[in-house]
Amino acid sequence: MTRLDLAAIESARKRIEGLVVRTPLVRLNAEDAPAEIFLKLENLQPTGSFKVRGAGNAVALLSPAERTRGVFTCSAGNMAQALAWHAKRLGIPCTAIVPDTAPATKLAAIRRFGATIVQLSCDEGYAPLKGWTFVHPFADPAMMAGNGTIGLEILEDLPNVDTVVIPFGGGGLSAGIATAIKAKRPGTRIYACEPETAAPLAASFAKAAPSEVHRIPSFVDGIGASSVLPEMWNLVRPMLEGSLVVSLKETASAIRLLVERNRVVAEGAGGSSVAAALAGKAGKGHIVCVVSGGNVDTEVLGKILRGEVP
Amino acid sequence: MTRLDLAAIESARKRIEGLVVRTPLVRLNAEDAPAEIFLKLENLQPTGSFKVRGAGNAVALLSPAERTRGVFTCSAGNMAQALAWHAKRLGIPCTAIVPDTAPATKLAAIRRFGATIVQLSCDEGYAPLKGWTFVHPFADPAMMAGNGTIGLEILEDLPNVDTVVIPFGGGGLSAGIATAIKAKRPGTRIYACEPETAAPLAASFAKAAPSEVHRIPSFVDGIGASSVLPEMWNLVRPMLEGSLVVSLKETASAIRLLVERNRVVAEGAGGSSVAAALAGKAGKGHIVCVVSGGNVDTEVLGKILRGEVP
Which residues, at least 6 apart from A115, have a Cβ–Cβ distance to it below 8 Å? Predict the structure, then answer.
């Protein structure tokens, strides 16, 4: 598969059906919100993020020979967990290339699913993985088609959706969901969202060209890169209204609200879409916020529940 | 409706469809569990507990005249929130009779849904409610039939379920779910579960008669009464294998695990079923734990996340 289109997304859906959770779309239980806000709860997936959809599709497309050799990715986070989870399920060797700086709690989560961890820069070659299949965390058509299945489910559950807000890291989640929704309900407004500390897509929209920003590390670590890949910019630009930028404080408040009112735990990325909608940045009407994941460190969550911004 | 049977539950399901969440059944993401544990996530309901099912059914059965006069219940917790939520949705006057000792945070949650709060003992009469319809929190056939819809959904999502574990307060949740499941898959083992601090059902099984215990208040406040009503004992006794008793420590650990591995927030009652299964008390095979609700105080949750037993 090389094209990302509705047919690819529909095929992906058949491949991953029963393997991942058909996540619920629930109302945000906040009576004073500026719009009718709905939550697409991808934090309920096994491994705690939407990444199991794309990784499940990518792994299902491997040939028997490719399965025997193994798969690898560059990630210390949600992508590594998702790929490792599917690989374990199918008995496929899996390696995660992680940066030296990856925190121990994240590495423990990857190891739980049996993946081998190699600390390297992702640009370096690594001889033992010769012949293994690389699955890119976002700029991979199979990954994006898997992500697009979220869009199909949103339209089934809320046919009159007006707006969808999607956390933006590399752009694979936005590309997949927007492709599905624009194909079936072209008038839907689709926004990306980014943290104030790392918002290269917003900068790219401002300059009408893929741009780089100075990235400040924060607890919102599932999204917020320093740049947007040109190929991803070209792909998402025609489908998105823009990128909504939210503060760390808005995001922490949204995560706390999700715990207190909807009894779900979102990570920084997952809370950012809700923060954008609550701040009125996504307008009015029926707004779906994609809660992309819930892999937040327990200590960070504790701080958020005490009203602090970690 | 006066009988609790499969037909009543199927009718209830039609009445509440689209009003409440068709909650997902997800795997507990713990590789080292003693069984294949699944979670029925009733904490994702609006108002954060299963009670919206029964309350929705009870309210749908009111005559126009009854709707005009109003509804009331005796509860400072999940029942009051659920009834108030439906009443607000339909413009029905609603009053919650609460004990003097009800904490302010619980009262605030009830007020959010527009109910009037009256601080009284539930045994006292209250003249202004003459003519209003009383909806009993558990020993009401319409409530129990609504609860039973959880059983239908469990069987749809996991047809080969071996065991279901259900938090036991007054018995209405157990009666509803057990009625549905025993009608359709009689070999399924159904257990109630109770906290060590208030386990009158376990005492009743031990004495083969409805019994009273000395109840110690704890953070597990959605279940754990001091006695079992004889009518509820007669109803549930033939359908249950027994009552699994869990410690506060086991329950707090289960709640923490649910946050860390499944990204959901359970209250004490909701965590107790998971605690029972994790301790191996429900045996092996495919076990469904009903996560009955998620209305835990934020400060209590913070303590649990720090490894304390609140």
Answer: A80, A83, A84, A87, A88, A94, A95, A96
φ, ψ for residue B132 (rounded to 5)? -75, 155
Q: Show Cβ contacts of residue A179 under 8 Å, excluding neighbours closer than 6 positions.
A: A4, A5, A6, A9, A144, A148, A151, A239
Looking only at the bridges linking them, the beta strands covering A133-134 and A71-74 are parallel
- Written as six digits, the tokens of B43 are 């904490």
Tell me the average pLDDT across A108-118: 93
Q: How far A237 CA sits from the closest chain B CA (Å)?
A: 32
Can you tell me the distance from the alpha carbon of A229 to that of A252, in angstroms, rounded to the nearest whole number? 28
- Distance of CA B7 to CAs A23, A212, B3, B19, Å? 29, 62, 9, 20
The answer to whether A253 and A275 are in contact (CB under 8 A) is yes
- For B74-170, where are the alpha helices, taking DSSP H only? 78-90, 104-112, 141-157
User: Would you tell me how many other CB atoms lie within 10 Å of the CB of residue B25?
Assistant: 17
Contact partners, residue B88, CB within 8 Å, separation at least 6: B94, B113, B114, B115
**DSSP at B47:** G
Task: Say how many Å lie between the first and final Cα of chain B, rounded.
Answer: 41
Contact assessment for residue B295 and residue B267, using Cβ atoms and an 8 Å cutoff? yes
Token digits for B182? 């025993």
Number of H helices, E strands in chain A: 12, 10
Residue A124 has pLDDT above 60, yes or no: yes
Closest Cα of chain B to A83: distance in Å?
15
Give residue A292's pLDDT band: very low, low, confident or very high (50, 70, 90).
very high
Query: What is the C-alpha separation between A135 and A218, in angstroms, rounded?
Result: 26
First-to-final CA distance of chain A: 41
CA distance B25 to B40: 5
Chain B positions with Cβ closer than 8 Å to A: 21-24, 26-27, 29, 31, 41, 43-44, 46-48, 112, 256, 259-266, 294-295, 298, 301-302, 305-306
Taking the CA of residue A260 and the nearest CA in chain B, the distance in Å comes to 7
The ipTM assigned to this model is: 0.95
Cα(B102)–Cα(B95) distance, integer angstroms: 15
Over residues B282-302, the pLDDT tens digits come to 999 999 999 999 999 999 999
Instruction: Report the C-alpha gap between B180 and B192 in whole angstroms.
Output: 15
Closest CA to B193 of B268, B133, B119, B123: B268
Measured between alpha carbons, how far is A5 from A12 in angstroms, rounded to an integer?
Answer: 11
Pick from A241, A195, A188: nearest CA to A219: A195
Please state whether the predicted TM-score (pTM) of the whole model is above 0.90: yes
- For residue B195, the SS3 value is strand
Cross-chain Cβ contact B24/A47 below 8 Å: no
Task: Give residues with Cβ within 8 angstroms of A222, minimum separation 6.
Answer: A49, A77, A78, A167, A169, A267, A268, A269, A270, A292, A293, A295
Cα gap A127→B132, rounded to integer Å: 77
Mention every residue, 6+ apart, whose C-beta is less than 8 A from residue A270.
A42, A43, A49, A167, A222, A255, A290, A291, A292, A293, A294
Which two three-digit tokens encode residue A238? 């025609």
